[in-house]
Each structure stands twice: as C-alpha cells, then as structure tokens.
Write a structure and sequence with these properties.
506 residues; alpha/beta; Rossmann fold; six-stranded parallel β-sheet; 42% helix; globular; disordered N terminus; DUF3492; D-inositol 3-phosphate glycosyltransferase
C-alpha cells in the first residue's frame, strides 16, 4: 500500500485518535467504536486529540493505561491563547486568509485552498490565527472579497452581519489547528471535517501518516445540516465551501481511507479520493456480548435505541407508530437512549408530536439504559429510522441479539442487513409502518429473520476480525518494512452510525 504525499512512516507504535464530539467525552456509536479499538490493542500506545464543545466536558470512558494522553480542544469555549500578529506577519496572514476565502467562493481558485490552509495552520501554531480572525481585518477581507464582480455569492447581496457570522464560524471551525500536532506514529481521524485538521498539520509538518475513517459521510452530513441552519446563503456558501475543500484535501492526503460501507466509498471517490487509497472496512461486534435476546414481550412492541437527535428522525418513527397503532391498538413504542446537551428541544418536539397524534400513552422515552441489550430485548421488532447512517452499531447489535429489524435504506444499512430484515425508504412513515405490521403479524417470520440475522453477524461482522484488521493497518502505516496488509477474505469493520449530529462545527 502506498503512503503518498510526503508522509514519513516511522517504526513507532503510537496512534493518535482525532475525534469530534465523541470519545472519550460522550457515549454513542462512534465512541463505542473508539473504545473497542483502544481496548483491543493494549500492545499499542494511544493518545487522543478530542474536539469538544466547551472544554469542560468530563471524560466518561474508563481509559486504560496505554491511553497516555487526552487533549480537549474546545470549539465553543474560551478561544486559544495568543495575540494578534503585527506588521509584516499580519500582512502575510491577511494575504493567506484572502487566498483561503477566495478558494471557498471562487471555483477557479480552489487550488489555492491547501497552501492557504497550511499557512493558517502555521499561524494557529504561533497563536496568531484566532486573534486575527476575531479582529476587524478578517471581516473586512471577506466583505471586500464576496462583493467582487463575477462571484455567484455577490448575487445574494451579502451583508455586514453575514460577514461577521461567517467569520465567527470559520474562527471556531479552525480552532483545532491550534492543537499541538502529533509528531510521530499514526494520526487516525475517526471522522472527517474539523477533527482531521491536527492530522493534516501533523502530516504537513512532521510527515505523520494520516488514516481517515469516516462515520457516515461528514460532508453529506454538513449539507443536510445546513439545509435548515439559520443562516443566509452567503454564510452557507463560505462554510460549505470550507467543508467541501477540507474533505477534498483530507481525501487527497490520507495514506489510507477506511469507509464503513460501499455507499461511503462512492462519496469519497466523488470527493477526490484515489480508489487505490480506499479500503472498505465493516464494523464488528462480539456475538458473545450480544447473545440471543430470548423471549419477546407479550405486548406488540417496537423498540429503538440511539441518541435522541434530528438525524435519527424519530418524528418519522412516531408517525409510523401512529399508523401501526391504528391497526394494533395495544402496540407500544419504546425509545431508549440519551438526549445530548442542546438536543432537549428536539426531544420535546418528538414528545409533542406523540401527544398531538394521540399516542403519548404508548410512546415512552426510556433514557439511557445500563445494558443496551435490554433495549433490543424490549421489542418484538427493532426499528432504525435515521436519515443518514454509516454502518450502525445498533443495527448489528440488534441482529446479534436475534431480533428482526426494520431499517431505513441509508448508508451501509442494506449491506449490514442483507435479507435478514426489512429495509424501507427514509422519511416514509407509511412504508415503515407497513414493514413493522408485516413482522408484528408473523411470529414465524420474525423468528426466522432473527436467527438468520445473528448468524450473519457471526459469519461477517465480528469484533475479533475488526481489531486484527486495524492493528495490521496501524503497523503497516507506521513501519514501511512491513509491506501491504493482507486483508481477510471478508473485511470486518465499519464505521458506526454517523453520529454526524455529534459534529460540533455547525
């Protein structure tokens, strides 16, 4: 396997995980995935550079001794320390920032993005980037630039308020560049986007190989998120331009990209990733940790497990349940999972929807559960209603527990399920309700599907193969003498559900 673009491979067995809004400061599928990697490789040393919200988030995972350091990089807390540049340095930074913005707004200037980004990275390391972006000069540069003749954004009549908003969002998004970049080993970004920034700086400055595992497709998640974001088009043009060109640069410079499914791979190739730098790696669970769930509940029950978040589209699930209950008045819907800070309004909206439809007595938000297996066992059928996923942990865990599933056809869901569950279009309550009613009305079919689902996990998606695969990748990237990794016949790890809403950059 080539390690292109100037990466220097060393014999070190140190891995720096680059995370955003996940491990080790929160729970969820991505964090479980990180913990599995770390716990499964006690022979390697791990560090974590974690992009967080305020920097005050506690570490919620028990870290083993071979995790030797965790650095929190707050996106929305106090800004990085430093002072504004002066004189020649200020003029040089202003010129680099103008090239950076021009690349975001003018398709003819996109080749200037990478050199401008690394110039900004050097300023961030010197402590001058954030103070500069919080000053008037940065706002003035954007105001002058996007009013130039010939730029499409000019037609939207950008305002001073737009410029202030876009500049502030970029200042926050670029804060991870101020984190000390890894100087040896392998930098493993466990999502795209801003988490990759320290890894790109490490590659540029120290030749540290960059491994990229996207949980879902980060850029697609940003497009979805900005559809309803409360910003005018000029602001969206700047920020989405940044995420698009950052994705392209990440794909271009990564030594290896390990998407969780073929769907992700198509997005990455379209975004500029070379096919030879991509290996699809499916997710794994331990079947012994998720044994067959046992007897089903006596009352017809649909269960769901995950993070209460708009990307999980619980509103469609609740609307589908209303259609199910019209046919089965005794049916229940049990929703297991926590509500992240800032997501309370979405949960309240879902609760209000259930009440509006007349089903608040049958829809219960159970909160976090001590043992996730209990969430799967609680239902006759396990539901997944997301509008975007990678290769969802909750789905293969439920399959390992021998439960029949109804899932939306997003990301790697169809690859995971095969013919052991029903797959329906996203945002389609009627189709989801129809599939749920099919399974609730046919115990024999549910049982056969559940047995087949568990067998599929045992044959294709086991944790042991996951750990072995990534250990080989780490050692291969760190040691040029090892040569290419020989993958098993079925590669066995995928990124879990995109916890795209775990992104802190919006």
């Amino acid at each position: 396997m080539p390690v292109p673009h100037g990466a220097r491979r060393t014999a070190a067995t140190r891995v720096t995980l680059l995370t955003e809004g996940t491990y080790p400061h929160s729970h969820g599928g991505v964090s479980v995935w990180c913990d599995q990697l770390v716990q499964g490789m006690p022979d390697l040393a791990f560090d974590v550079i974690a992009v967080t919200g305020t920097g005050r988030e506690p570490v919620v995972w028990e870290l083993p001794a071979h995790v030797t350091g965790v650095l929190s990089v707050p996106m929305w807390g106090a800004p990085p320390e430093g002072r504004p540049p002066r004189g020649r340095a200020r003029n040089q930074l202003a010129a680099a920032y103008e090239r950076f913005l021009t690349a975001l707004l003018d398709p003819r200037a996109e080749d200037g993005f990478a050199p401008a980004l690394y110039a900004l990275a050097r300023a961030a390391a010197d402590g001058t980037l954030s103070p500069f972006l919080r000053g008037d000069r940065a706002v003035a540069i954007l105001t002058a630039l996007w009013n130039r003749p010939g730029l499409a954004v000019r037609e939207a009549r950008p305002t001073l308020h737009d410029a202030l908003t876009a500049t502030a969002l970029l200042e926050h998004a670029l804060r991870p560049l101020a984190a000390p970049a890894p100087e040896s080993g392998v930098a493993h970004a466990v999502s795209g986007g801003v988490a990759v920034l320290p890894g790109l700086a490490a590659l540029e400055n120290h030749g540290v190989p960059l491994l990229l595992t996207e949980h879902g497709v980060y850029l697609r998640e940003r497009y979805l998120g900005y559809r309803t974001a409360p910003y005018r088009w000029p602001v969206k043009a700047v920020i989405l331009g940044f995420f698009r060109l950052l994705a392209r640069e990440s794909y271009r410079r990564a030594a290896l990209i390990t998407p969780g499914n073929r769907y992700n791979r198509l997005w990455e190739e379209e975004g500029g990733a070379a096919p030879e730098s991509i290996r699809t790696v499916y997710n794994g669970v331990d079947p012994a940790a998720f044994p067959a769930a046992g007897p089903e509940p006596d009352t017809p029950t649909l269960s769901w497990a995950g993070r209460v978040d708009p990307i999980k589209d619980l509103e469609t699930l609740i609307r589908a349940f209303a259609l199910v209950r019209a046919r089965l008045p005794q049916a229940r819907l049990r929703l297991f999972g926590g509500t992240p800070r800032g997501g309370e309004a979405y949960r309240e909206r879902c609760e209000a929807l259930a009440a509006e439809l007349g089903h608040s007595d049958a829809v219960t938000f159970e909160g976090r559960v001590d043992d996730i297996k209990d969430a799967y066992a609680a239902g006759n059928v396990v539901m997944l209603s997301s509008i975007s996923e990678g290769f969802p942990f909750t789905l293969i865990e439920a399959m390992s527990c021998g439960r029949a599933t109804v899932s939306t056809d997003v990301g790697g869901v169809r690859e995971a399920v095969g013919d052991t569950g029903l797959v329906v279009p996203p945002r389609d309550p009627q189709a989801m309700a129809g599939a749920a009613l099919e399974l609730l009305g046919d115990p024999g079919r549910r049982r056969a599907m559940g047995e087949a689902a568990r067998l599929r996990v045992i044959e294709q998606f086991t944790l042991r193969q996951t750990i072995d695969t990534f250990r080989s990748v780490y050692l291969e990237l760190a040691d040029p003498k090892r040569g290419p990794t020989v993958m098993p016949p079925r590669v066995t790890m995928a990124a879990p559900a995109v916890d795209g809403a775990e992104s802190l950059a919006l």
